[in-house]
Specification:
The structure is a homodimer of 87-residue chains. The first copy, chain A, contains four helices and no strands. Chain A has 87 residues and is an all-alpha fold. Chain A has one domain (2-84): Monooxygenase (Up-down Bundle), CATH 1.20.1280.
Chain lengths: 87, 87
């Protein structure tokens, strides 16, 4: 029961930190502007999220792997849209 | 040895996903502009990071707790600076 509760917190956390990048991607695509967004932040963040995914694989914790795997793709999308719409 | 390696990956991941927000905060403070930044993203992200911290506490994994604790403060700082410099 406690195990299910812990994994549930991880799952909700994972959904939040994954879904979070979607409004940013839509905002950039809609406005075609990404000047205020820090490229440095997203390069470091994408690297960090990739490493969290590796950490999850090594621990065998599915919520960490899943959440960070999707976050990695979305965060990389922000990097690409930022480079595309610099101005 | 394997345990140390796993915790080391978590530690580097934690440093990356924590430090990442610093260039964004400096960029906003320097330019006094945060128009392109999605408030929705940072509100959801701050909530998610808080829950990852709780997940780390429940699992007793120090790298998860430490990294997400500091990330939470930094992410909240982006929320505050975004509200301050909307235009």
């Amino acid at each position: 029961m406690l195990f299910i509760c812990i994994e549930m917190v991880g799952l909700i956390a994972g959904v939040c930190t994954t879904v979070a990048f979607v409004p940013q991607i839509f905002k950039i695509l809609k406005s075609k502007h990404a000047r205020d967004i820090s490229l440095g932040m997203y390069v470091i963040l994408t690297t960090g999220i990739f490493l969290w995914m590796v950490y999850g694989i090594l621990l065998g914790r599915i919520p960490i792997v899943l959440a960070n795997g999707i976050s990695f793709v979305l965060c990389l999308t922000v990097v690409i849209t930022k480079i595309r719409y610099k101005g």
